[in-house]
Specification:
- With about 160 residues, the protein is an alpha+beta fold.
- It has helices at about 1-30, 80, 125-130; strands spanning about 50-55, 55-65, 70-75, 90-95, 100, 105, 110, 115, 120-125, 135-140, 150-155.
- Strands 1, 4, 5, 8, 10 and 11 form a six-stranded antiparallel β-sheet that branches. A three-stranded antiparallel β-sheet has the order 2-3-9.
- Strand 10 and strand 11 form a beta hairpin.
- The longest helix is centred in the N-terminal third of the chain and has 29 residues, at about 1-30.
- It is globular.
- The chain starts with a helix and ends with a strand.
């Protein structure tokens, strides 16, 4: 008689488990998924945070080329430097140690020189990563050593 009682108890337990499984699955499906872990702040993504900037500041912007918006960091002239009077030349990025030139981002086009201080915008690139010091200069790009240094960025290694 004890085996019959054990079998009935086991059958009742199996039936209860079988009937409660869909209810438990439905309850977990109705439970909203856990909120994603908050991403590090945008400031933590700044690729220029380790640079010593003089006359430049990092700025986070959005650009939507072909309808696909992306956020990106760039270096721009500080307000004080941008307000100065500039006449008779162009802005360009120059690495004095190697004599190489970098590029600005004008809207969504890379350009070697720009005419207005408001157009100075450097993005994180091979140039900014591979030169421990680069400068924004104003003057004649054909004679970079004679051009006026407007701003600098230095990576201390």
């Amino acid at each position: 008689m004890s085996s019959r009682i054990a079998f009935r108890a086991l059958a009742a337990l199996a039936a209860t488990a079988a009937l409660s499984l869909p209810v438990a699955q439905g309850a977990s499906a109705a439970t909203p998924p856990a909120a994603p872990t908050p991403r590090a702040s945008v400031a933590d993504d700044n690729p220029f945070r380790w640079m010593d900037l003089d006359g430049l500041r990092a700025e986070y912007r959005f650009m939507c080329p072909a309808g696909h918006c992306v956020g990106y960091w760039s270096l721009v002239l500080t307000d004080e430097v941008a307000k100065r009077s500039y006449r008779g030349g162009e802005f360009f990025v120059y690495a004095p140690a190697t004599g190489e030139f970098g590029f600005f981002l004008d809207t969504d086009i890379a350009t070697r020189t720009v005419r207005h201080a408001s157009q100075v915008r450097l993005v994180d690139s091979d140039f900014t990563r591979s030169h421990p010091r680069f400068e924004v200069r104003y003057g004649d790009p054909a004679q970079p050593k004679k051009a006026r240094v407007v701003a600098t960025a230095t990576i201390w290694m």
